[in-house]
Amino acid sequence: MNTLTAYISDLRLTSRDSMSALGRWWWSIDHWLLYATGALILMGIVLSFAAGPASAMRIGIENTNHFIIKHMMFIVPAIGLMIMVSFLTPLQARRVGVIVFAVMLAMIIAALLFGPTIKGANRWLPLGPIGIQPSEFAKAGFVIAAAWLMAEGANAKKFPGGLLALGCYAMFAGLLIAQPDYGQWALVTAVWAIMFFIAGWSWFWIIALGCTAVGALYMGYLYAPHIASRIDTFLNPASGDTYQVDKAVEAIRNGGAFGHDFGQEPGAAADAVKYQLPDSHTDFIFAVAGEEFGFFLCLVILALYAFFVCRAFMLAARKQSVFIQTAVCGLAATIGLQAIVNIGVNLRVLPAKGMTLPFISYGGSSMLATGLAIGLILALTRKQPGHMSRRETLA
Amino acid sequence: MLAWLTGRRSKSAKAEIIFDGSLPEMPAEPCLPISGRTTLVGREAGRARQLQGRIWLCLSVFVLIFSGLALRLANITLVSPEPEKVMVASRAIAEPGERPEITDRNGVSLALNRTVTGLAIDTKMVWDAMETAQGIASVFPQYDPSALARRIEDKKYIILRNELTAEEQRALLTLGLPGVTFPETTKRVYPQGALAAHAAGYTIAGRGGVAGLEFVADEHAGEGKLASSIDVRAQQILEEEIRAGMDRFKVDSAWGVIMKAKTGEVVALASMPSFNPNEVNDSPADHWRNRAMQDRYELGSAFKVITAASVIEEGIASPETLYDARKPLKVYDRTIYDFHPRREIMSLSKVVQHSSNIGIARAALDLGRERQREYFAQLGLTEAVKTELPESRDPDLPLRWGPVETATISYGHGIAVTPLQLTAAISAVINGGIYRTPTFLKVEDQTGASREGRQVFSPETSAKMRLIMRQVITDGSASRAEAPGYYPIGKTATADKPGIGGYRDNARLSSFVGAFPGYDPEYVILVSFDEPHGIEATYGYATAGWVAAPVFGNIVARMGPVLGIAPAHDDLAFAQFMAGLRSSEEVTLALNDQIDVSATASLEVGEEMDDVARLLAKELGP
C-alpha cells in the first residue's frame, strides 16, 4: 500500500516537474470544469440510447440505432476540438475566437443567400455531404470578440470599445433575425447584456441602455396594437397548439421520482410518451430523461449545468484581466442560458423555443460548437502558467 | 499567419493594447474608481478586482434560476398526481379474441378481428438447419439462407412472419420441412382504412384500446357488436369536403364534427391530417392526434351566437334591440374593433349577421360576468367534455374573468375550447335549448328524451336564434353556406391564431358552425381550417365566409339526400321557422324586420303573405 502511494506521489511529482506539454496542460487546466464536462458528455450518450430509437422510429428511419451512432460520431470530434482549443494560451484563444466570429458571420450571410430553407428558416449551410449551422459556432466567437472590445474600451478611454461591441452585437443580432432565429437572438442579447454588465461599464450606461430597451418596448406596446397583443398573449399564454410542450410535461410527470419502467414488452414501451414527442432527441431530450429516469437524474443534469456555470464564474472572478473575466462569463452564460431555456421549455415555464441542451441534445453543429465554447473556457481559466509571457496570458 | 495564430510576437501585432512599456495617457474620467496603482497593468488588475462583485451577482442570479427550475421539476414529478395513468392501469383489457366488432350506426364495420396465419420455426424439431433455411429462402428471397441457418442453430423458437398469404403457406407446406409451424393469431383490422380513423382509434399490444372507440371496446368485451353513433356516409362526405377545402386553400390541418342536434350523437368526426389505423406507425404521432377533441382553439365569432342567446334568454334584449357599433368600444385598457366596420347602430340580429365585435361586446357587458359564466358552465364550456372516448382536453379560460374578458369572450377571443365542445354548445342553442353531452354510442330513441339533458335556453329563445342564424346566411357574412332546400343556419368564425408571444398576423382559423334543416335542425356541423391561404378566386380572402362556409354548404347539400332529409318548400320552411316564436306579436315584429328565410327573394306583401298567414294559423292553432 505504502509503495503504491509513494509511486503515485512520485508519478505526480515527475509529471508536474517534467512540464511536458501534456503535463503542463493537465496541471494548469481546471479539473472540476473538466469533470463536469465529462459527466455531461456521459449523460448525453446514455440519453441518446433512450431517445434515439424513439426518434428514429418516429421519423421512419429503419435503423433504430441511427441517432445513437450519429451521436457518437459527433461527440468524438467535439471532445477532440474541446481539448485542442483548451491547449491555447489566452492570447491565442482570443485570436481564434475573433477569427471564428469573422468566418462564421461570412458563412451566416452565405447561408442566408444560398442556403436551403428548412422549416421556414435559412440557418444551414451545406458543406459537401454535411450541413453546418454557422450561427452555433458564431456564438462563441462573438463572446470572445465582444469581450475583447469591451475590455479594451474599459481599459483605454480613447478606444470606443463599448460602441464597437455594440456594433458586433447589432451585426450578429441582425443576421439572426434575418434567418429568422428568435431563440438564438434572445440568447445572444442576454449574453451580451451580461458581458456588458460584467465588463464594468458604469451604472449610468447600464441604466441608459436598459431604459432605452424598456422604453422602446413600452412605446411599441402603446402605439402598435399588434405588439401589444403579442405581449399580452405572452403574459397569458392562451390556447393554440401546445402539443409538444404538453407532451413533454406529461412525459416528465410519468417519470416520477425514479423513472417509468416500461418493462421489456415492446408494446408497452411503445406507449411511452417519448414515442409521441416530435424532436425527442433534440429539443425535448430532457423530457425523455424525466420519463425514463425520473426526478433524480433530471436534478443531476440541472446540478451539473449549475455547477459548471458557477465554477466558471468563480474562476473568472479570480482572474486579473477584464478580457478573461468577461469572456469566460459570457461563454459560461451561453452554456447556462441555453440549458435554462431548454429545460424551462420542457418544464413549461418558458414559451416553446428551439434550443439545444449543450452536449446532451443530438446535433452535430451544436455539439461541436459546445466543444469550442467549453474548450475556450478551459483555455482561459487555466492557472497562470509561469513560463508564459504576460503578453500571452493577457494578465 | 502561423506565427500570429500561435501567439508569437510579431510586428503586426503592435496594436495589441497590452502593457508594452510605454505609459499611455491617463483617462480623463475613469469608468470605475481606480485603486492607487499607476501602471496600466496594475490598473487593469485593480479593475478586474472591482468586477468580482458583479460576477458574483450574476452567479447568484444563475443559481436562483437553476434552483427555480429544480423546484418546478420537483413540483411536476413529485407533487402533482397523475390521475389518468392510474385509471388506465386499472382498466380491464379485452383479450384479442373477445374484442367486440365496432360498427357504425347502420352496422357497417369499423373494426373487427381477423385470424391470421404466421410463420415460425420450432428449432427443436428441425432436422437440417441449412435445408430448412434454404427452403424458407426459396419462398422469401429476402432471407439469407446461411444467416437464417445460424439463427436456427442458436435459438429455440423464431417468429419470422406475422402474416402469410395462402399461396405462401401452400408453398411452404409443399416443402415438407419439419419444425416449420404456422401459428394463428388474432389481428385487429379496420376495413374503412383511414376513414373515421380518429373515431375508431387503435390498439396497442398489451394495453388494449388506447384511442377512440377501441378504448370503449375494452369495456364491452364479449358482448357482441358495439354500435357506435358514427355514420360512415356522413363521415365520407365530411372528410371529402374537408380535404377538398384543404387542397383549395393550401391548408395543413383541419377538422370537422357532425352531431345529431336532438340526441347529441356524433355522426362524423374528422381530424386532418389523418392516419390509417391498420398501420398506425406509418404516420407521424402528430397525425394520430384527434384535433377535434384533444386540441383547444380560440374559435372566434361562433361565440357571438351564445352571447346573443344568453341576453335574449335573460330578457335583456330581443333580436331587435339596438346596439351602437359606430365607434370602437373602449373597455378599460382594451379597445374593441370590428373586423369589417359598418359604423352604424344595429339590431342584435344584425350584430350577429355582420359579426360586429363592438355590438356583441356591449350585449355581453349588459349580461355581466356572473351570468355569462353561468351560461358557459351550463353549455359545458368551462370544463372538459367527458364522452366515452379517452380523448379530452380542459378548456383554457381566462385567468382573470373581468369586464375586459367578458367583452372579448363574447366574440370568442381569450377562451379556447375543443371543437367538439363548441359544437355541443351551439347544438343547445338551436335544438330547442337542451344541452346534451356528445356521445359516440348509438342512441335508439331518436327524440333524445332517453338521454340526460339540461334545458339551458327556452324553445322560444332557440327559435329566435335559428332565425338570426338563418339571416347570417341569407343576409350576412355567410352567403356561400347556402344549400337550397335545406335552409341551413349558422355562423362564421374567423379567429387570429395566438402564436408564441402574441396573435399572429395572417395566421387564421376559419371556421363555420351551423345546422340543417334550419327550421328544425337535425344535424349540427362544425368545420375549421387552420391557416388557410387566400386564392385568386376568393380575391385573396381566407376568412370563414370564403373558406369554411362553402365547405359547410357542400356538406349540407350532399348529406341531405343521402341521410333522407327531403328539401322543403319555402312556405313550409317559413312557417316552421315562425312556429317556434312565442306570440303572433313577435312574428309580426320579425316580419317587419324583413326576414327572408327563403333566400330566393324577399317576401312580398300580398298573396304570398296570405299563404304564410294560413300556414301559420295551421301551425299555431286558433
Automatic annotation (TrEMBL), chain A:
InterPro entries: FtsW/RodA. GO terms for molecular function: lipid-linked peptidoglycan transporter activity; peptidoglycan glycosyltransferase activity. One of its GO terms (biological process) is peptidoglycan biosynthetic process. This is Probable peptidoglycan glycosyltransferase FtsW. The chain crosses the membrane at residues 32-51, 72-90, 96-115, 159-178, 185-218, 284-310, 322-347, 359-381. Keywords: Cell cycle, Cell division, Cell shape, Glycosyltransferase, Membrane, Peptidoglycan synthesis, Transferase, Transmembrane, Transmembrane helix. It is found in: Membrane. It catalyses: [GlcNAc-(1->4)-Mur2Ac(oyl-L-Ala-gamma-D-Glu-L-Lys-D-Ala-D-Ala)](n)-di-trans,octa-cis-undecaprenyl diphosphate + beta-D-GlcNAc-(1->4)-Mur2Ac(oyl-L-Ala-gamma-D-Glu-L-Lys-D-Ala-D-Ala)-di-trans,octa-cis-undecaprenyl diphosphate = [GlcNAc-(1->4)-Mur2Ac(oyl-L-Ala-gamma-D-Glu-L-Lys-D-Ala-D-Ala)](n+1)-di-trans,octa-cis-undecaprenyl diphosphate + di-trans,octa-cis-undecaprenyl diphosphate + H(+). It comes from the Bacteria. One of its GO terms (cellular component) is cell division site. Its EC number is 2.4.99.28.
TrEMBL record, chain B:
Residues 257-555 form the Penicillin-binding protein transpeptidase domain. One of its GO terms (molecular function) is carboxypeptidase activity. Its main location: membrane. GO terms for biological process: cell wall organization. The chain crosses the membrane at residues 55-74. Pfam families: PBP_dimer, Transpeptidase. Residues 95-203 form the Penicillin-binding protein dimerisation domain. It is found in: Membrane. GO terms for cellular component: plasma membrane. Keywords: Carboxypeptidase, Hydrolase, Membrane, Protease, Transmembrane, Transmembrane helix. PANTHER family: PEPTIDOGLYCAN D,D-TRANSPEPTIDASE (PTHR30627), PEPTIDOGLYCAN D,D-TRANSPEPTIDASE FTSI (PTHR30627:SF1). This is Penicillin-binding protein 2.
